[in-house]
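Reviewer 2 asked us to include a model.

Predict the structure of this chain.
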Amino acid sequence: MRYSPLLLLPLAVSAAPQVKRGNANAAINSLFCALNKDVITLLKAQTTATSYCSSYLSIATQTLYFYHYYSHSFERPRNDNRYRDRRSIHYHLNGYGDYATLVPGTVTDAATQTLTPTSTSAVTVTETSTNTITDFTTTTTTTTTTVYATATSITASGLTYRKYTHSYNANLAASGFTPSYFKTASVDFSGSLQNLDFSTPNWPSGNSYLTIDGHYFASDQAAILMQGFFVAQATGTYTISTSPDYIDNYGYLWTGDAAYTWTDGTTAYAATRTGGGYFGGSTSITMNAGDAVPMTWLWANGGGVGRSHFVITTPSGSSVTDTTGYFAPACDSSIFT
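Predicted model (structure tokens):
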């Protein structure tokens, strides 16, 4: 009797069938157990086996090559029982020798499951837009720096001068002397002069030669034009004066803006000692210490010996005939015409 694996498959998961007692029954039971083990092994190798089968048929992992043998028993006539034969018939599963790797554990169920929704839900998406407004204030800081003018330290190095020669005769009552003549006259020499009070040697006698700023010359027909700034050494009123008894022969003074142009009719005073008479003059200026006032002084001799008389009376009341330290030259001499 030949058993088919398809017929044995249900036996792998069911109880062993009832068989007859005796040797035949024992042979059948042995065959059943062998085939049942093979079936169990093959079930374990199938991915479609359920988890129950996997648990029930748990076998250690191994690779087997299956050859299935079963016994076929048959009976001869009674007198031939001694020739009872047990033949082994080679049977291999699915017609071939088969390899199978057995893996214990859970077997995946590949069955398809269909899920049917029971309700429909609506999803509402709310978009939130956030606008950020930044409020800012621009502050402009203005820094004001006040710069105060610092008084410039004036170097009182004297007035600049120009020396001229003329032909006016002071002994005449109407000599025709005029300062404007020297605006176009030729300059003999020039330089810097500190003291405006000077005279020929042994004035009112002696000779007419004069030494000015290192220059020695005959002064009987000489004229010297001095220009620059009068600088106050102290705060107060200064008085500048010329005596008619000591001027020999002409002394003309301009102060302030008039000093720049020094025209005939704008003098602070005009002192003379001529054939037309003796005339002195004075002018006062109120200043702060360090102030500088434009000044032009013109001295001229009309014959013989000569003298420039120039006196400064300070705020303290003292009179100074040596004017050194009271005058400073212009930075640009062209400001005086």
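The two ends are 159 Å apart (CA to CA). The longest strand covers residues 222-231. We have added this to the supplementary material.
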